[in-house]
Input
Amino acid sequence: MALRNITFSADNDLIDRARLLAQSERTTLNDVFREWLTQYTASRSGAARFDAWMRRMKPLRAGRRFTRDEMNER
Output
């Protein structure tokens, strides 16, 4: 896996507190950021896939509504 360096700006106190928190969790700020980036991109791609699926399903209009009993049948 090739890694690229990026630069962010944040308040010094915030960075210091984040580093201390990461250290208390026996990890690094870089590792925490990589984990966050993975989760952030996964949630976005999942939402985008769901939105695309909903757009594809929109033309499918089921004319009949099911009763509560029909929906609960097994």
